[in-house]
Amino acid sequence: MTTVKWWKTLRAVPSWAYAAMLGVFLLVLPALQPGYSVTRQVQLTLILALVVSGLNLSLGYAGQLAIGQVAMYAAGAYTAGIISVAGVTDLLVQLLAAGTAALVVGIITGIPGLRLGSWSLAMTSFFLVLLVPDVVSIFEEHTGGQLGLTGIQGATLFGYQLTPTDFYLSVVVVAILWFAAFRNIIVSRHGIAFQMLKHSPVLASSVGMSVFRVKLTGYATGAIPAGLAGALFANLDLFVSLDAFGFTVATGALAASILGGSVSVYGALLGAAVVEFASSRSDSFQEYSLVFFGLFLLVGGVLLSGGVAGAVRPLVARLDRAAGLIGADRRSSGAGEGEAVHRIDGGLLEVTGVSKAFGGNRVLTGVSLRAEPGRVTALIGPNGSGKTTMLNLICGYYRRDVGEITMDGKPIKTAATHLIARLGVARTFQTPLIPRSVTVRDVVASGRYTVERASFAGAILRTPRFRAVRRRDRQRADEILGLVGLGHLAGTEAATLPLGMRRMLEVARGLAAEPKVLLLDEAASGLDEAEVETLAEVIRRIRDAGCTIILVEHNFGLVLSLADEIVVLARGSVLAVGPPSKIANDPRVRDEYLGTSDEGARPDEPVITAAGQESTS
Amino acid sequence: MTLIYAGLSLGAVYALVAIGYNIVFVASRSFNFAQAQLMTIGAFVAYTGHVTFGLPAIAVVLLAMIAVMLIASIEERIAVRPVADHQTQLITTLGFGTMLTGIAQLVWGSQPLDVPFVGAKGAITLLGGRLYTFELGLIVLAIVLVVVIHLYNRRMMSGLALVAMSQDDEAALLRGINVRKLAFAAFAVTGLLAGLMGFFIGPKTFAVATLGSALALKGFVALAIGGFGSFYGGLAGGFAVGLVEAHAARYLGSEFSNLSVFLILILVLMIRPTGLFGQLQERTV
Question: Is A372 exposed, middle or buried (0-12, 13-18, 19+ CB in 10 A)?
């Protein structure tokens, strides 16, 4: 029992406090007179950790393998070195200039690299490393070319010449500030946004995120610490040469990231410490360094997919459970009170004469439907009749061949998915898309990504506006979770919930987006009776609040009890339209859909699932 | 004309890298970052066979092919098969490639080694330009390989199976195609070819451990220009990169050759991200 108690005390302290303690320790270290080699080692480790944490941001969080971090490091170092030679020695100015230079390199290479998925960015950024020597020798008169850049003067701060100890402290302070900023990004909604994007670009765009913008933000922001590291490095030895920015260093940084855990904030420190320590220890390590770095990448990639930080996390969770810090109650508690649903201004969605073919396979032919505010419009039909395709056309995942879709009379062009989401179209998926290691509350709050905007800089600085938005995010999420009966699970990791709850969670996320139109794609399949009842109740409340709901569903009983209007699709065309009473008695519908006369199998049309997307992009 | 030959033969080297990428890509939709390193090892083995053992050319080719095939098989087992997603495969294959570079440095040193070719390294005159026999060999090899692979994919059952796998490996599995075995075979074949390619590129590029990363990148540019999965595209892309590089080095200076290739890459990605022969796939939910 004592270990449990001990663990409880340890966990009562927030995790950033340990990092803060390390920071304080490094700040008071000079007072202990540890000697030159130790302080130098600490400085080099922190500089490498800055480079690595930028890599974590783009690789671990934004999900983009970018090996060119070293090129941005070089850009920062040369920028700082050159302006120092020119007489600008103030460290703050140098950091600003170096950070900006790295950011510019990041943006310029990120834009083309990000257009074609992961390999292109890996390669364009890797190519940068190859270009460093060429660019340096083109500007030889400024950079010193192969011989290295000499003549850098000691750093100053507001005109005051920094001693080696002062400079050491500056390095520690820069590292502390960056890691604090990094941590603030990761725990904010932008951190959640990165996780969603990494899990599924389809999901990210469905809540209104511009996939390209978010990726670019992650990658370009990751360049900033590399630039800062470069400025510090140039001022550490007052000498910059090409040796520090080669292929070996690039792989070393990547190895440190993988080793410490790419999806972590402080893992970068650990990984950098190991790599830096190993490089300094043995002379023979230099010779074997590539073999070791390669091995790190290989073993790290295969075994510890989350690095050391990833290996520690399950252990923490296990201890938490033992200490009773995580609730074990997994039951759904039924629909909660109704006041959580505010008045919603539903939108009138009209689809007119829409057709879609995949190659020669005609999936939809001249389909029209009309979904009105405050009504549930159900879309039913046998497998492959084009129901999900219809939803995907409305959301903009597919381009329609002909036809028109309007919202409140205004045409929705074949715009980008995230723009359509921003018009007020929210949806759920046949296979729930729930990112890993995100809590239930954060999943719901993520639906509010475009309801209220909160800037990146605001998240770093924790501005009052950011705090206000965050408070409302949580408040709304908790209200909606109460409505769908998941309120008691708000702090649980969402991906571990059973299927029924994950479906309900997707409905909650859709509702959090305050949509004009809510599209539910087979929201009830795989749910037990009690869950179906809760879902029906929730849908009724959302409808009564004024939202337009389009429901794709196979559960005929549920559709009859819930829908105000039913559209029956068969073989890509509308077979019948009308209220439930009419549809239930329509002989053609009974024939086609309920299978009263079994006419045998039809050729199957492609079954399009959300799960398929994960592997293709 | 001499400059064009130089560009074409250099381009053939990149086209060969692109062929290696494409075989693995078509078979398993993954990207083998270590492809160029495999070829570099092939060049080193060719050097050892020629110079250290003094073997005849045919024995050297076989030795290089078998050695690299073994290494590629090991790679498939330890760096590709245990890893499910393609993103992580990028990291593990990069790790494997880095290890190969490191090992090559330990075994063969870091000085460039001059790999001999069949017979003497003589220059011949062709259509008003001069080129070395091994350069002609490279160009011919690249073209012949692409044609053979293309015909193979169209005519042979296993070639069709490979193409089927690249479209949808689950569907291929249901049709009774042994997806794992074929993916492994694709790696082994890439290794076999990389050994052969190493034998041909060694005389042109010299055997040097650091060759891998530059080759990997230029091969990728060839692929990006030509379009992923397109063998003819990779060939055209390779030649384009080689010609650009040779001309930039000649007229602008050697420090501009990489830069101009990079510029081409950026332009292609901005203007035609699917490459010249690539196809656009519609997104699916």
Answer: middle
Which residue among B88, B98, B269 places its CB closest to the CB of A290?
Answer: B98
Block residue for tokens 């055997």:
B207
The nearest alpha carbon in chain A to B273 belongs to: A116
Q: What are the chain B neighbours of A63 within 8 Å (beta carbons)?
A: 87
Note whether A294 contacts B97, CB cutoff 8 Å.
yes
* pLDDT tens digits, A206-265: 888 888 888 888 888 899 999 999 999 999 988 888 888 888 888 888 888 888 888 888
Nearest to A608 among B98, B106, B285 (CB): B285
CA nearest to A564, candidates A346, A408, A370: A370
With CA atoms as reference, the chain A residue closest to B266 would be: A112
Residues of B with CB below 8 A from A138's CB?
Answer: 255-256, 259
Direct distance between the N- and C-terminal alpha carbons of chain A, in angstroms, rounded to an integer: 48
- The verdict on A212 touching B (C-beta cutoff 8 Å) is no
Q: Supply the angle between the helices B157-167 and B179-205 in degrees, to the nearest 10.
A: 100
| Tens digits of residue pLDDT in B235-255 | 988 999 999 988 888 888 888
Structure tokens at A411: 């045409």
Rounded distance between C-alpha atoms, residue A593 and residue A574, angstroms:
12
Least confident of A357-366, A534-543, B176-185: B176-185
Determine whether the interchain pair B102/A123 forms a contact, defined as Cβ–Cβ distance below 8 Å. Answer: no
Closest CA–CA distance from residue B283 to any residue of chain A (Å): 6
How far is A293 from A302, CA to CA, in rounded Å?
14
Dihedrals φ, ψ of A201, to 5°? Answer: -60, -30
Tell if the CB–CB gap between A295 and B95 is shorter than 8 Å: yes
The token pair that represents A8 in the structure block: 């409880």
* Residue of A394, B284, A395, A371 lying closest to A403 (CA atoms): A394
Instruction: Kindly give, in sequence order, each residue whose CB lies less than 8 Å from that of residue A235, ignoring residues fewer than 6 positions away.
Output: A80, A84, A91, A94, A152, A154, A155, A167
Alpha carbon distance A589, A580 (integer Å): 11
Q: Which residues of A, range 117-136, sit inside 8 Å of B by Cβ?
A: 118-120, 122-124, 126-127, 129-131, 134-135
| Chain A: closest CA distance from residue B84 (Å) | 9
The answer to whether the CB atoms of B224 and A130 lie below 8 A apart is no
Q: What are phi and psi of B110, to 5 degrees?
A: -105, 5
Separation of alpha carbons B256 and B250, rounded Å = 9
Total CB pairs under 8 A between chain A and B: 151
The verdict on a CB contact (< 8 Å) between A616 and B259 is no
Q: What is the pTM of this model?
A: 0.82
Q: What contacts B94, CB < 8 A, 6 or more positions away?
A: A67, A251, A254, A297, B33, B34
Report the alpha-carbon angle A128-A133-A137, nearest 5: 130
Condensed to tens digits (0 to 9), the pLDDT of residues A255-312 reads: 888 888 888 888 889 889 888 887 776 666 667 788 888 888 888 777 755 556 666 7
Of A542, A530, A517, nearest to A405 by C-alpha is A517
Give pLDDT tens digits for A528-576: 888 888 888 888 888 888 889 999 888 888 888 888 999 988 888 888 8
Amino acid at B265: L
Q: Would you tell me how many other CB atoms lie within 10 Å of the CB of residue A579?
A: 12
Using an 8 Å Cβ cutoff, are B275 and B259 in contact? Answer: no
CB of A251 within 8 Å of any CB in chain B?
yes
Per-residue pLDDT tens for B125-157? Answer: 777 777 777 788 888 888 988 888 888 777 766
Tokens 């270290």 belong to A29
Phi/psi-derived region of residue A607, left when phi > 0, alpha when psi is between -120 and 50, beta in every other case: beta
Phi, psi of B104 (to 5 degrees): -60, -40
Instruction: Give the Cα separation of B185 and B157 in Å (integer).
Output: 14
Is B210 in Cβ contact with A131 (below 8 Å)?
A: no
